[in-house]
Each structure stands twice: as structure tokens, then as C-alpha cells.
């Protein structure tokens, strides 16, 4: 049995590699250099239709036309691996509902808002004070929501570590690191959240997953030419 993970060094990519490390399943890594547009390669788009990382191929499960099964979108990957292994996702009841609620909180709110804050602050071609302010404030509000939850429970889903924590760890770390450079006082006030970050970050699987793809895996992309995709004027592929 083997899984192929297509990923890059981003919080979304790190969700999948952390979960694979937690699961103990064997997997191979293909680095997809999003800075070079490799996510727009038609071959990759057959695995991930929206041209995003991460994506997973399970050679032990049948997909369309008898091909190995593709699993795209990071939240979908977490649920798939949790159900495949019986790990980090309660099977039923309120515990499952709570874990999935916090998973979708990350998918719908934390990730998009922190991502927009980072882009407006560090990557936008034109500086936008209103964009930076809008997404910074919303990112901080979401961190405060998490802080409140973690003041009453050890983990986002409750008493046990789950895919909700896997999903949120790298995005939270990114936001806290960004915020700490601007406002150490605001960060210091998020004590339950900081304690959770430390507790989760010390898990061996998290440490290993955060380092994927490693330098050797990234080296495989070094000689590939940049790929011109939709953002560069290419056509949108099916």
C-alpha cells in the first residue's frame, strides 16, 4: 500500500504531511513548487482540479475509470485519512460534530483570513492599508475565538487531539509569528492558545510533518521550467 502526496511548504500542505505522519501510513512526496506555477501543470490538474496543493493519490483504493483514487482539498484529505485509519476523528455523536465544526472553522475562516492578511502585507503588488487592516483584525479575532475555546478544553475538538488541531496548527503558528513581529502584547494575551501551540508543536509527527517537503524533495523541482498557468494568462483547464 502506498500513498502519493503532492505538496509544498505552506500551512495547507503541512496539514496533509502532519496527518500522514500521525497515521503512520507509508507515503511518497512529490514537491509541487507553487512559486513556479507547477500547480497549473495539466497532469497535476487531473489530480487537483482547482490547481491547489496538497493532493493525495491512494493506490490502494479505486477511483474513476479504475485508476487509483485521487483526494484533493486539504480538509477532505484529513477526513479521508482519519476514516481510513480510524484515527483522530470520533466515529459518531457530539464529539465528531465538535471536531468537524472546528475543522470547518479553519477551512472557512482561519486559513482564508490569515492567507489574505499575509498576501496584502507581504505579496500584494500595490500596498493597501485597508486590506492589511481588515484581514489583520479578522485574523486576530479568529485567534481570540480559538483562545476562548482552548481556555475551556485541551484541544479544539475537546479533550482529545484530533484533525481539528492538525488543520489549525500551521495556520495558527503562521498568524502568531506574524502578529508577534507587530504586537507582542496582543500575542501574550492569548495564553491558552500559546500553550496549545506548544503542546501540539512538540508532537513528533507534527515536527516531522512541518518539514515536508524537505530540501532533498524540493531539489527535484529545481531544474523544472516555470509553468504558465491561469494566473499568468493561460487558459483554465478542466
UniProtKB/TrEMBL annotation:
Gene3D superfamilies reported in the protein's UniProt record: 1.20.1050.10, Glutaredoxin
Q: Where is the composition biased (Basic and acidic residues)?
A: 215-226
Concerning CDD domains, the annotation shows: GST_N_Ure2p_like (cd03048)
Which intervals of the chain are annotated as region Disordered?
207-238
Q: Where would one find the signal peptide in this protein?
A: none
Q: Which PANTHER family match?
A: DISULFIDE-BOND OXIDOREDUCTASE YFCG, GLUTATHIONE S-TRANSFERASE-RELATED
Q: What is this protein called?
A: GST-like protein
This protein's species is Marinobacter persicus
Amino acid at each position: 500500500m502506498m500513498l502519493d502526496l503532492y505538496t509544498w511548504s505552506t500551512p495547507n500542505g503541512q496539514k496533509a504531511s502532519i496527518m500522514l505522519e500521525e497515521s503512520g501510513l507509508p507515503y511518497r512526496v512529490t514537491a509541487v513548487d507553487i512559486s513556479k506555477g507547477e500547480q497549473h501543470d495539466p497532469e497535476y490538474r487531473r489530480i487537483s482540479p482547482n490547481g491547489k496543493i496538497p493532493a493525495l493519490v491512494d493506490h490502494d483504493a479505486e477511483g474513476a475509470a479504475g485508476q487509483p483514487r485521487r483526494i484533493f482539498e486539504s480538509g477532505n484529505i484529513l477526513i479521508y485519512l482519519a476514516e481510513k485509519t480510524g484515527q483522530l476523528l470520533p466515529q459518531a455523536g457530539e464529539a465528531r460534530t465538535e471536531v468537524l465544526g472546528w475543522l470547518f472553522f479553519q477551512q472557512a475562516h482561519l486559513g482564508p483570513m490569515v492567507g489574505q492578511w499575509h498576501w496584502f502585507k507581504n505579496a500584494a503588488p500595490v500596498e493597501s492599508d485597508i486590506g492589511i487592516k481588515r484581514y489583520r483584525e479578522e485574523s486576530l479575532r479568529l485567534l481570540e475565538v480559538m483562545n476562548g475555546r482552548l481556555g475551556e478544553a485541551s484541544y479544539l475538538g475537546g479533550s482529545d487531539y484530533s484533525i481539528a488541531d492538525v488543520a489549525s496548527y500551521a495556520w495558527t503558528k503562521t498568524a502568531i509569528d506574524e502578529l508577534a513581529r507587530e504586537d507582542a502584547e496582543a500575542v501574550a494575551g492569548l495564553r491558552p492558545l500559546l500553550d496549545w501551540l506548544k503542546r501540539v508543536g512538540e508532537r513528533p509527527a507534527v515536527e516531522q510533518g512541518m518539514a515536508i517537503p524537505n530540501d532533498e524533495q524540493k531539489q527535484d523541482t529545481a531544474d523544472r521550467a516555470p509553468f504558465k498557468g491561469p494566473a499568468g494568462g493561460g487558459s483554465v483547464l478542466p
